[in-house]
Each structure stands twice: as structure tokens, then as C-alpha cells.
Amino acid sequence: MEKIFENNKKWVAEKLAQDENYFANLAKGQQPRYLFIGCADSRVPANEITGSAPGEMFVHRNIANMVVHTDINLLSVLQYAVEVLKVKDVIVCGHYGCGGVAAAAGNNQFGLIDNWLRNIKDVVRLHEDEIFSIEDEEQRLRRLVELNVMEQVHNLSKTSIIQNALKGDNPPKLHGLVYDLKEGLLRDLKVDINSFKRYEHIYNLTAETV
Question: Is 60 labeled as catalytic in the residue annotation?
């Protein structure tokens, strides 16, 4: 902990040397452009890999960057970001070498987390033919990471929060990205939520008037 406090003091000194009003301006409020939904992996720091400064990115992280419709934490962050902060872009960012994805691809028990990983197993089920047609294990897991991100973007589009926002004048754009730990680069999966419209009759919600 001593190292953390020491680093904090150095960081404060550096920021104040650049701008004496840096923290005073930050304290006035936030207007982030982005909501970043990423993995809790310590090697994937949202602000650093995107070059974002404090105040530019609202962040939610969990195991394997999941958008689970029973996760009140995620939904609360999403609603606040979209309806109050008016973010312009909502990003789901996975990463190659994800331990959560690898665990879900296997059949071992890990305890409580198994209930969370069941959501990734649903991704395996949806794309079983493609995934198991890849013989190389590393490439198979890399593809599962990508497919998981794509499905989480679709899960975003299913939420009433995003559906209501899409009816507005300036709805946020949804993005699916993958971070490569070995290269440090982000890749845009170019997820097309319009391709999901064939399921509108199932997922789209209309507000009822009482």
C-alpha cells in the first residue's frame, strides 16, 4: 500500500505541474463520450489502452466483458451512462487470452464463477459448428473471444435502455472491440446490430401507456 500512496502523490504532482487547475476542473463534473464495458483482467486497463484521460470514459468491468440482463450493476451503469451522461458510444471490449472465455470453453468446475460462465457457454452453443470446426485450440479460443464480444453487443441492443435510446434523436452507437495482449492493439469487429433486426418481433419492446 505504501507504493500506491507514493505513486499517487507523484501522479498528483505531475498533473498539477501541467495544469494547476487540473483537479479543480475534474471536480466540477463529468461528460464522458464513451461507456467502456470490458474484462476485469488487470492487463486491460480501459483508459490506458484507449489513451483516454480521466473524465472521457465511463467504465464497467466484469469477468469476460459480459452483458447479462440480470446484472443490476451493469444495467445501472448502462442506464446512467446513456440516459444521464448521454454518452455517444458504448463499447464492449474483449481480449485475446481471456481466462474467463477459456474456462467457459472447458468442462471443469471452478465454483461460484461457473454460474457466470454459463452465459459464455450459451455463446458456444449458438456458434458450435463454427467454433468446433477450428482445430487449433488457440485460434478456436481467439474466435470464441470475438464471438462473445459480438453476442454481448447484441445483448446490449436487447436491453430496454438501448431500445429506448435508439428512438431518440442522438442514440449512442454500439461497438465491439478486441484487444490483443501480445500486440497492444485494438481491433474493431464491426458488429452490425442491423443484422439482428430479423429478431425484432421477439426482442423489441414497446412502452405501454396506462
Answer: no
